[in-house]
Amino acid sequence: MPEQARRHHVVSKFYLRYFANDNERVTTVMLPGERAFPQGIGDASVQIDYYTVIDQAGQQSDVVEQALSLVEAPAAAAWREVAAGVWPLSDEHRQSMAAWVALQLLRGSSVRNRMSQVASHALLLEVILGGRARLREVLSAAGETVDDETVNREWIGLFTNPVRAEAGANHHMQHLVNMLPRVTQSLLDRWWILTVFKRKALATSDHPVHLVPYEEMMRTGRGTGIDNAMAIHVPLTRRHSLAMYQPSAVPRELAALGRDVQQSGVAATALYSNSCTVNSARRFLFHHPDDAPLSGLNLSQPREREVMVHAQLWGWIAEDDRQVLLDAGFGPDDLAALLE
Questions:
Q1: Residue 339's pLDDT is what?
Q2: Strand, coil or helix: 131
Q3: Tens digit of pLDDT for each residue in 309-334?
Q4: Where are the beta strands (DSSP E) in the chain?
Q5: pTM of the model
Q6: CA-based end-to-end distance of the chain
Q7: Cβ–Cβ contacts within 10 Å for residue 167, how many?
Q8: Are the CB atoms for 79 and 18 separated by under 8 Å?
């Protein structure tokens, strides 16, 4: 039996090669930018056992890692076309590139963290709505003591040491399999604009695909997803960036040229591309060792939180249940902090 692969690339090795030097090394920048170091593309973006699932026999399996090659190999051929100056792509290569971009949107740690955080918030909401009365029922059904002191102690513990849900690889990969065809088609339905840079250089990140919201959505605080993003931005190589636009959002001067067009990049568009890359990064940025594409950009702290709840849930807790929490020193600000 062949040895199971445990070092899994969250960003494809073939893709990182387009940001590497001849020795296949990139400069890896750790957010917030205080540390940068050279790294081989065989090590960049690697996470141990990230795609390892439990199969029907209850054994660990790297079948997902093997299956991803069915998307990555055709995508690598599409990237070679772009690097060679081919545009627009053939339908086959366009399909392959769309599938890879969809894969990146679905497989990163941001998705798994979001799933975990949504589930954790749902558990906390269930606690809030059930209150101590529901907690007493659960303890009684489990054969536990249900005197007031015990119930109050357990109630406080549900907030001071809340249960955290963790989405595993099986759950995440099933979500990926379910969503990949739909997301791929959504990207194929967009208008693609390729920007080519002769001198300016681009960076990429551990989450190389960035969703660009409509300004109206930003002003009104609405969320941006794959389907409603104004554009989806991807640095393809250190000299090529791709913007996948909603048809209604394509700049007028470009819309007249056709569905998949190419334009020359200037300093301003390179700065915009790299700012998108910075905004989508969670922990790491990558660029060619000879380039300085992040110069002048503000790098944020690593991002772990993907979901925030702005509802005032403190008011949803029954008054007598709130009082027990207040007496223990736990208040509305503490609850808000759990939801950030």
A1: 85
A2: helix
A3: 878 899 999 999 999 999 999 999 99
A4: 7-9, 25-30, 35-40, 46-48, 53-54, 60-61, 191-196, 204-205, 210-212, 231-237, 240-245, 260-264, 284-287
A5: 0.91
A6: 46
A7: 18
A8: yes
For the chain, state the CA radius of gyration. 24
The Cα-based distances of 137 to 123, 256, 329 in angstroms read 16, 66, 25
The type of residue at 186 is: S
Max alpha carbon distance in the chain (Å)?
74
| Angle between helical axes of 319-327 and 148-160 (0-180°, round to 10) | 80
For residue 18, give both structure tokens.
């387009």
List Cα–Cα distances, 249 to 17, 140, 193, 237, 298, in angstroms. Answer: 32, 58, 12, 24, 27
| Cα 283 to Cα 109, 118, 200, 274, 280, distances in angstroms | 10, 21, 24, 15, 10
Unique residue bearing structure tokens 């954790």: 120
H helices, E strands: number in the chain: 11, 13
Q: Other C-beta atoms within 10 Å of 117: how many? A: 20
d(C-alpha 45, C-alpha 37), whole Å: 13
